[in-house]
Design brief:
- 30% of the residues lie in helices and 48% in strands.
- The radius of gyration is 21 Å and the shape is globular.
- 22% of the residues are buried.
- The protein contains three helices and ten strands.
- Strand 6 and strand 7 form a beta hairpin.
- The longest helix is centred in the N-terminal third of the chain and has 26 residues.
- It is α+β, with helices and mostly antiparallel strands.
Length: 163
């Protein structure tokens, strides 16, 4: 009888460990997309999904959602377009840029900026992809916190294997 109780406890503990392991695996899923751009660059977008966010590819761009609501959208830019955006942001002639910050993430230079758009404040990142002739613009209309949370979960890399 005592042996039966011990076996039952071991089974319960084993099942609980398995459930915890499977739950932990689902908390940090990674999704990855490779985008072949018109200029020949292949850009890999890896998203470390957590806190209910998901990423999907849509017509050559990517969309990050939570609870079936679009949080951020990402599009690809040429180097020339990146430089134009960078100059407009830095000059800020019309004072539409509310906040600006530059930084580096995963060897990529980025500019974070807030701008008042027709649909409200936009929280945007423009990322110059290291070693590529391309950049990525990630726009968010919800709030600064979500824009930052999404950006932190993204890994953007130039695919050197496709040279």
């Amino acid at each position: 009888m005592k042996e039966l109780k011990i076996n039952r406890k071991v089974k319960v503990i084993a099942i609980l460990c398995l459930v915890l392991f499977l739950t932990a695996c689902n908390l940090n899923e990674r999704s990855s997309y490779s985008f072949s751009l018109e200029n020949g660059d292949v850009i890999n977008i890896v998203f470390k999904s957590k806190n209910g966010y998901t990423i999907n590819q849509k017509n050559g761009s990517f969309v990050i959602s939570k609870d079936n609501k679009t949080i951020s959208q990402g599009i690809f830019l040429t180097d020339k377009l990146y430089e134009e955006y960078k100059n407009i942001i830095n000059e800020n002639k019309n004072k539409e840029i509310l906040n600006k910050k530059t930084g580096k993430k995963d060897n990529n230079d980025y500019i974070y900026y807030e701008v008042q758009g027709k649909n409200g404040t936009e929280y945007n990142y423009i990322v110059k992809v290291f070693s590529a002739d391309s950049a990525v613009m990630i726009g968010c209309l919800t709030n600064k916190k979500e824009a930052q949370e999404v950006f932190e979960q993204l890994i953007i890399k130039y695919d050197l294997n496709n040279l």
